[in-house]
Amino acid sequence: MEMHQVGYEWFCTNINASFMCLQRHPYLVSQLCELFGQVSRYNVTDFFTVQFKKELADKCVDMLNTLFEGLYSQKTLKDELLSCGVIQYWASLCIKQGDLVSLKYLSQYWMYYPIQFEEDQNLPNQYLFMMKKASRDQSKVLRYFSLNYLFRILEKLANDRNPYAAVLYKKLTFSLIENYDDVEMREFIMNNFMYLIQRFSSIPIDILIEPLVKQIIMNDTLVNFPDMKLFKFIVGHPKMRVRLAIILLDLLAKIYLNNPIYSSLAFNPIQILLARFAESQLLREYAFKLAKISLALHYNSLKSRKQQQKINDLSILSTIQQLNNDQEIFHAQKRAQIIELVKFIINMQQDELNEQIKPLICHFYLELKSNKDNRQRSCQLTQICSGILKKQLALFSNNGNKRRNSKKRQ
């Protein structure tokens, strides 16, 4: 014991050499933590508070952050650091300082000692308030840092089925809405959400998707590739329900019909959702409304095309004509997309839904044939609709024959 005390005092007078060694050789962190555990066996509190302060001054917390994982891996030492109050002592100082280094220490404290961290309810609340403030800071470094650690803590708590996981999940969802205008930050947050949702299938996705969809619709915000990536990822999730599917379908349909850049990316999630919930009455009702609106948009597009052609004939300015031609290309693409969407809905082979759609198709087909201009300029489209109509009439006829034969047998 006495020899150990002599060795301890000698080591403390030369402790700075070990810190310099760690700075030059960071891969030795686990070996140094093991050494610190042996040296401080009977002087844990003194070593990790008094001696650290004496040699490191205001860099103590930064050094502890470097050592945290290595110290935790020492089975005996990790418990002693708690029982002696060392971890709590530095946490109390970090709460007062509130800088990036302090936030990192508190984050690691929650990740490695969640039970002890949550014993005092004020500590998680104070920490979350500080991280919320950091996530809104003008410094992008601080914002990325805070969100990154919140996601890491969420992963740990979700794995432990900790009740605080739900709190962090909602706060991070709110951060996504807050940072929606920042494309890079938005992509960073969405990628982290996708990772967590893929790992933990029990995560309720409606908490994330509903506010996101409302943000896009209410503020008329332009979608971007990260949004489409998330939507494609989420449509196959086992937690997806009909109500949420319809909310998402409504947004995807607007993107598909109005956004030429991302329309092709929107069609596949639409197909997946329609096919997945085809047996649902609520979805069939929505699909009928979608088909009705789509066909009306198609016909209105053809009417505006005719009016636009008259303007082009009168125009003597090539610039105006070019703009009009660009618009016509967009509307032609839109009309083709509408036909593909309606075809997919019909090919779902939901008899009740198709019975409702049949009059719409008939009316639409007759309107196309009755207009000479449309018939001449939309010959291919008319043939497509005719094919759909004939196929449906044959399908309905076969179903009717089956029902009549069934009655005769009875």
> What coarse outline follows from CA principal-axis ratios?
elongated
Major β-sheet annotation: none
Low-pLDDT segments, ≥5 res: 310-317, 375-381
Distance between the termini: 100 Å
Total E-strand runs:
0
- Count of helices? 22
Percent of residues in helical segments? over 70%
Please explain how this structure is put together:
- The structure is a single chain.
- This protein is mainly alpha-helical and about 400 residues long.
- Helix 11 packs parallel to helix 13 and helix 13 runs parallel beside helix 15.
- It has helices at about 1-15, 15-25, 30-40, 45-55, 60-70, 75-85, 85-95, 100-110, 115, 120-135, 140-160, 165-180, 185-200, 205-220, 225-235, 240-260, 265-275, 280-315, 320-345, 350-370, 370-375, 380-410.
- The protein is built from 22 helices and no strands.
What keywords describe this structure?
elongated; 0% strand; 410 residues; mainly alpha
Q: Care to give the gist of this entry?
A:
Helix content is about 80%, strand content about 0%. The chain has about 400 residues and is mostly helical.
Secondary structure topology:
Layout: H1 2-13, H2 15-24, H3 29-39, H4 44-56, H5 60-72, H6 75-83, H7 86-97, H8 100-112, H9 114-117, H10 122-135, H11 140-159, H12 164-178, H13 183-199, H14 206-218, H15 225-234, H16 242-258, H17 263-276, H18 281-314, H19 318-346, H20 351-370, H21 372-377, H22 379-409
Helix pairs in contact: 3-5, 5-8, 7-8, 8-10, 8-11, 10-11, 11-12, 11-13, 12-13, 12-14, 13-15, 14-16, 15-17, 16-17, 16-18, 18-19, 18-20, 19-22, 20-22
